[in-house]
Amino acid sequence: MAEIRKIKVGTASCGLAAGAGAVLDFFRDHAGVEIEEVGCIGHCYAEPLVEVVTDAGSVFYRDVKGEQACLDNILALGETGRLEVSPSRRKYEMLKVTRLAGRICPTSFDAYVAEGGYGALKKALTMTAAEVVDEVKRSGLRGRGGGGFPTGMKWQFLAAKQAEKKILICNADEGDPGAFMDRSMMESVPHQVLEGMLIGAYATGADILFIYCRAEYPLAIKHIRIAIDQIREHGLDVVNGKKLDIIIKEGAGAFVCGEETALIASLEGRRGTPRFRPPFPTDRGWNDYPTSLNNVETFANIPLVIGEGGAAFAQVGTEKSKGTKLFALAGDLKYPGLIEVPMGTTIGEIVFEVGGADPDQVKAVQTGGPSGGCIPKELFDTPVDYDSLNALGAIMGSGGMIVIGTDRCMVETARYFLDFTHRESCGKCTFCRVGMMRMYETLERIVAGKGEMSDIDFLADLGPKIKKGSLCGLGQTAPNPVLATLRYYKNEYIEHVRDKRCAALVCNALVDVKLDPEKCVKCRLCIRNCAVGAISDDFVIDNAKCTRCNTCIDVCPKHAVARVEKGEGYYAE
Amino acid sequence: MSDKFAYLSSVERSRTYLIKGLQTVQAHDGYISDAAIEAIAAYFSVPPVDVEGVVSFYAQFKRTRPGKYKVAVCDGTACHIKGSISILEWVGTELGIKPGQTDRDGLFSLETVACLGCCSLAPVMSINGKVYGKLDRKGTVKILKEYRKNG
Amino acid sequence: MPNEIKFKIDGREFTAAPGETILEVATRNGISIPTLCHNQKISRTTSCFVCVVKDKRTGKFLPSCSACPANGQEVESSSDEVRDMRRTALNLLLSEHAGDCEAPCTVACPAHAQVEEYVRAGRRGDFKKSLKIIKERIPLPLSISRVCPRFCEKECRRNVYGKPVAINDFKRLAADLYYDEYMEDIPVENGRRIAVVGAGPAGLSAAYFLRRLGYRVKMFEKMPKAGGMLRYGIPEYRLPKAILDREIAHFFKMGIELECNRQLGLNLSLDVLKSEYDAVAVTIGCWKAGSMRCAGEELALQGIKFLERIAANDWTGNNPGKTIVVGGGNTAMDCLRTSVRLGSDDVTCFYRRSEEQMPAEKLEIHEAKEEGVKFEFLVAPVKLVRNDAGKLVLTCQRMELGEPDASGRRKPVPVPGSEFDVEADTVIAAIGQATDAPPGLAVNRFGDLDVCEHTYRMSDNVFAAGDCVTGAATVVEGVAGGRIIALGIDGFLSGREYRPEPVVNVSRGHWQSLRKEDLVFLRQDVSEADRVPQRLIPIAERTSTFHEVAATFTPEEVQSEGKRCIECSCTAKGDCKLRQHSQEYGADPEAYKGARLQQGYDNRHPVIIHDRMKCIKCGTCVKICAEVVNKNLLSQKYRGFATKVEGLFGRTLPDSCAECGACVEECPVGALDWRFKA
């Protein structure tokens, strides 16, 4: 039997939420071998994940519990509970940016250096700043935060500025619900992000580096903070002969602050409202100093660009979208988690081959977060790159990808996204502030069965105007979920409005709940758990009282309770 | 500045750090009172009304005292699809409060959050920052009862 | 200039200096672009998006207040697409903007008299000013203040909690006090002559406004005296004819001529008038009585003819004996109450629908009952005969309410076998009135004169207004029509067709949908007192004489009513940029219906009102106070649709703001404004 060298426990947020903390404690107390905390390897569905490093290679265990039987199995390198990565996933994945994620201890400077970390920075310092910028330009790297602006160009603008101070900001305000690429990178390989920033500071001549991170990511903040202390210890924060100010700023809960001018306002201690550009931040940014903003994933790519050279980097990807892209897969699929694939991989390959979704159970995928658009299954052979997605009315966004199953209601899905975006509007632009509210109200009416056919035209008319009449990316994209679902699933809207019917049985106002006496075993769990007393002693659900809360459906051990079409349920009065 | 907010001196005295200052106060007091707004305004030399505008803009800042246990039900996309509305309903019923409220004993307060970044474990909630994933009704209620028992 | 930028707006080339915005260049060259959040005194806001222009190359919409042109750029500022975007922005703003541009009383007044304004003048005891305001729209205040059904009061926001302000009584007192002495500025005659045919309310009003526009006016009246229905239809006890004479005397003072006993088609030729006058205003009213549509109806008196006869006899006549009046309108009430006054002690109204459906004014019905009039509802005449004893016998049928008809009212249907007879000395049919159109004038499908809806022009130089166009209506509606016809004729003769100005009126909603908390009180001292009751002459005097029933309010009574007025209209109605642009771009407050945020208002400051529900969140006040005044008293709070502008912790602005008011002056709408109206 192979000798166990070390046991690595994934303790990124996803792992901890699944119970990795208890596993870690248990192993520390009982395993008797070196235990190392690592980040996330992307297989979040399998957390808590444990990697057993042996002299013959690594073995991964999934869904690990902190108990003796489990420990014994792992120490014996047992066959049960091993993580099997499907060959199809291996085929399409390309781990470049995430090569080290989940493999090394995120809080260890030495571990990063041992894997070649800060080699790219060293190499960059042997080049001129202009050469570094050129290399980034040559790589074709485009902003990974969603906009897709060429990173090298942005740096060139900043580098060309003569100013008392120049600012480089790492945008880690990953606000898209359903996206967690940036969190994962910061938690798992904080040094890789910092290395990218230091190279950026050298290339652009920046003096102050900000990392603007969501406050909801405490672990990411902690790891970045530790990493900053470590590079200071090692003197890596002195670039171009000057000591850089590296400052972590925690966001305070505002999606709009992912927008660059809003983020800058927030960094200045103001309300996070965007402003008209030009002037662009590279001309007038934080406190009027020239400023460049790049996203976490963009910075994490920089060591690769410099390390292997721009030309080599550009070998991967499509003509206009170079390199790999991280996606956070979530929703109705087998393997939710983080994946890295070359640009140009098709949506189908990602969803079915990597994510393991059942083609018969998938209706669409939502890309680009709440302000992206849905792409129906029929278009899943679309390659993932900035321009192809835009053409479909969706956006790349930062890389969230939510798989929507066949049993989901697209109108409700659109309503849900607008519920989020209309609340996150900063309130500055008329179209976004009022228009999004009006669209949201209209969708609320439709899912409540109170829509009129004119509402559908109203949505189709106002949506594009909001996009055209808003200053920032939020308003410019927020109507997308409605417009995209109207484009591909108009029939569902018409059904809700004209027939007062939700085929997916999702919209509460358009469904009843019914108990099937054939299946019922009269255990009374439903009756006992019903908060409104809607279920009679002879097991009949009164839909007049029922609030459609799903509790009875959830507690029934025999699946005897189900949602049915409106009118099929019983009404007492 | 009143002594009550003397701990603010750990924060750099520049407007750039205003949000940091607010976060420091909230971490200390659990919420941001009128007095805190005035103290922060004085500390950073920013008009108090301006500070109030900033506080009210960001969802993180609370203007009322929260419960001992801050329950945050995630209503991010993945969680929503996985039924976070039901989770919210169950939690609300168990605690007898609605999002944005604190219960009468000051033990629990409830809110929804956009995304806790644990989408693969959806649906999730967090209590004082500790995340609980793959929730069902039974599990959710059990977790809450556990906290209540501990008081 | 080497740095000059050349670009095009709507195809015209302009030159911009570096840093100059598209809006600045446009303004400099006389191209008007609407703005709301833009204000030169403060840093750029770029939020309202009302000023958008379209970049022709990229297809993007740019806020012209902030976008600087680029060399060779072409932008559109007046295309349909740009106008649509601007209109949409305005519609969206209107949908969250809650307030009353104009007071509901003013909106409700068919003549659009500035009701709130004359009530305010009355409250302050300035009845002369009150009268002046009234007469801008109502040339017959002595009459209208006595006979108007008070459209204004029905919409008064005081209905939300209690009774409406006694608005009409402001008119009455002001007119009673100052009508004789008040004289408008009358321009010298412009050499053009107008003939007005019919000197009733519409004709008098047309003559009045035409004269004020400089025309020489001559009225032709078929009856022996001017006044039309005011004289021959409305009973003396409601409008004493001595008062009407006073009212009409003023028209002669204005230089308006009158020739009586001239009837169109009889002894007056339209063709002659058309050729001798520059224009002809036909305001001949509705003098044809409606039919009872039952056998023997010729035995009944016609309501208006009955009244006309009594009027012509100076409100004297024989006791009609036992009287039945068939009909439920105001004319029926007039016939009933006149019959009482002529000595009958048995007067009954027969109406085929229910009491709630009666079109007569509630007050009229009430006063008729007080005077002993009996009412039979759901009764319809079937036949009228004279029996051998010389008495009239009216056969009637009971009715019940069925399905709603075209008017939305439940239609009365006969109850089979419910016929009954009733004896009477006099039966009066007050069923309605119709236009008796003279030959040669086109009529519409209702038999009324057919006019252009905007200009009231019929054909050639002939115009028409009043009852003969609308069908029988109220005096104030006739007066309103008289003004339009004057404007229509003026437009016609000066070569620019009259079109009413587009008016956008945002409303908080009908009072029935409001609670007291939804109302905004500019003054803290709006009186909580009950409405001043109407003083009437004793009932014995009412039933035996034609003396005027209701007394004029005293100045003290009117002033105390004035203190009950909430002053609903917007303080900024005259200079609100949102309203102006909305009118220009055809925006509609009803276009996007949805929730409005309940943000409350603050009237605690000595002179400033902060009505947040009117706020369009442009933040101009915040910036003015911060950047110009350096006081930092306001900020924007919350975000998105919930964005709200207010002071620290919602406190009222300090008293010292009274001396500055910079925010008030710059608010593009009426959210921050001076609390007291001029």
Main pleated-sheet profile of chain A: 5 strands, mixed
CATH superfamily of the largest domain in chain B: Glutaredoxin
Q: Radius of gyration of chain B in whole Å, from Cα?
A: 17 Å
Give the oligomer, counting copies of the same chain as homo and different chains as hetero.
heterotrimer
Low-pLDDT regions of chain A: none
How many beta-strand elements of chain B? 4
Beta strands of chain A, count: 17
Determine the most extensive contact between two protein chains: A-B, 63 and 48 residues
**In whole angstroms, how far apart are the ends of chain A?**
72 Å
Beta-strand content estimate of chain A: 15-25%
What shape does the CA trace of chain B take?
elongated
Beta-strand residue fraction of chain B: 5-15%
How many domain regions of chain B? Answer: 2
How many H/I helical runs of chain A? 24
**Level-1 CATH class name of the largest domain in chain B:** Alpha Beta
Provide a descriptive summary of the structure in words.
- Chain A has 24 helices and 17 strands.
- Chain A is of the alpha/beta class.
- In chain A, strand 3 and strand 4 form a beta hairpin.
- In chain A, helix 6 packs across helix 13, helix 7 (129-139) packs antiparallel against helix 8 (151-160) and helix 9 (181-188) packs across helix 11.
- The radius of gyration of chain A is 26 Å and the shape is globular.
- Chain B is 42% helix and 12% strand.
- With 678 residues, chain C is of the alpha/beta class.
- Chain C has 5 domains: 5-78, Ubiquitin-like (UB roll) (Roll), CATH 3.10.20.740; 104-182 and 520-562, Orthogonal Bundle (Fumarate Reductase Iron-sulfur Protein, Chain B, domain 2), CATH 1.10.1060.10; 193-286 and 435-493, FAD/NAD(P)-binding domain (3-Layer(bba) Sandwich), CATH 3.50.50; 290-432, FAD/NAD(P)-binding domain (3-Layer(bba) Sandwich); 593-674, 2-Layer Sandwich (Alpha-Beta Plaits).
- In chain C, 30% of the residues lie in helices and 17% in strands.
- In chain C, the strands form 7 sheets. Chain C has a 6-stranded mixed sheet with strand order 8-7-6-9-22-21, sandwiched between helices. In chain C, strands 2-1-5-3-4 form a 5-stranded mixed sheet, sandwiched between helices.
- The radius of gyration of chain C is 30 Å and the shape is globular.
- Chains in contact: A-B, A-C, B-C.
- At the A-B interface, helix 1, strand 11, strand 15, helix 17 and helix 24 of A face helix 1, helix 3, helix 4 and helix 5 of B.
